[in-house]
């Protein structure tokens, strides 16, 4: 196995050739301390995550951990599926720090740092929560647009707000706010999507005064204000009446950012190029993607893509092709990706004019084709001696799981050895059943009894009308190694966690300056 030192890796990060830097630890462990350009590829989800992040197996890949050996395990697995250029960072993150290089905490760090850079670079105006509250009480001519996902919006929102995820803002603002005298306030949970959403409207030339709500819903609560819960106010689906105006605005921003424009034939050539990685990302609303999308593309709603690029783009210096139906949302997302420093970013005009297919288009995982023994929801409900192990993310398990189920991380199932060894039957589940199927080998090694997979996962259990139980303290915060807990996810110290989170975001600017490998702004030649 090829091993490299920190100095060599730093050179690879800056040499402008393709590089995938994969951290093999669980996402909560990754969030404690990691390299700026690393993307989480936890060993427990390797079959799904690695194939989405690194679609071209000839890509140069470096696996990283904190020196515990999981990077080597991920590297061996990658080589086993055909990856031809895999290395491991010798000594992991401790060796990187010992060389004097910067380490970062948290999730989605490149996007979060970029948001702070955007605020400084463009002078994004912001509004304090208390001032917003007083203006709402006065009945000022204003509208609050929430740039998070609709699911996040429903859980908590600013009073009077409308759900307009960030990628939709420029596309729909003409219909939502036809009067240029109306003040527009953009918010998210913290800072990044508020800043990028507000600045998207400003960069696109929307004539209204546009401000970001300072520190989002966290700032609202920290100011002692009460959010709404369960709101369903959202943008009207379909093509907006002002779409042509939105396209003119988006073209101006994209052209200034150096975004390339290609057609379907160009994209086909990119997809066939064995020497380059090409991500084909559909930036429309997920419901539109589900109705029909280009074969081979992945759903990456524009605003979420920009604020969490490492969720979709695992290879630095890859080609990125963005698809939508009329070019507005693709151009806005592409412009921001260019400003983040991605060089080869393209909008595909006419990308949906050919054959489209319905569905969610998950990444292909050959390991899921293996035969496993299954059990149906009703049969499981009638079984008295089964031990159910749920491999959902910890925060999902807290929200709802099969009564009596144990929570487990696939890479740490040995911690449940005694319970599994004493079971009369072991049943594995996960939200859709995919991860449960992949974990059968690990569970079989620990159990004496037969191991079954719940057919269709916990979703099938719910469809069968079977009950769920929830417990916000199970698992406890300290055990949630699989996720970077947001302040709202925590069971105690939420206010302190909010303050720490907001300070962390603001401090990222200083960290990237010390790191020295980050260059935001339109790349050379753009």
Describe this structure in words.
- The chain folds into four domains: 2-109 and 502-513, Oxidized Rhodanese, domain 1, CATH 3.40.250.10; 121-236, 3-Layer(aba) Sandwich (Oxidized Rhodanese, domain 1), CATH 3.40.250; 253-348, Rhodanese-like domain (Oxidized Rhodanese, domain 1, 3-Layer(aba) Sandwich), CATH 3.40.250; 371-475, Oxidized Rhodanese, domain 1, CATH 3.40.250.
- By secondary structure, it is of the alpha/beta class.
- The chain is built from 23 helices and 21 strands.
- The radius of gyration is 23 Å and the shape is globular.
- The longest helix has 22 residues, at 494-515.
- Helix 6 packs across helix 23 (494-515).
- The strands form four sheets. Strands 1, 2, 3, 4, 5 and 14 form a six-stranded mixed β-sheet that branches. It has a five-stranded parallel β-sheet with strand order 6-10-9-7-8.
Summarize the structure.
The chain is α/β, with parallel strands linked by helices.
CATH class category of the largest domain: Alpha Beta
Overall pLDDT: 96
Shape: globular
How much beta, percentage-wise? 5-15%
The total count of helices amounts to 23
Number of domain modules: 4
* Full CATH superfamily name of the largest domain: Rhodanese-like domain
The percentage helix is 25-40%
The CATH topology of the largest domain corresponds to Oxidized Rhodanese, domain 1
Q: What low-confidence regions span 5 or more consecutive residues with pLDDT below 50?
A: none
What is the CATH architecture descriptor of the largest domain?
A: 3-Layer(aba) Sandwich
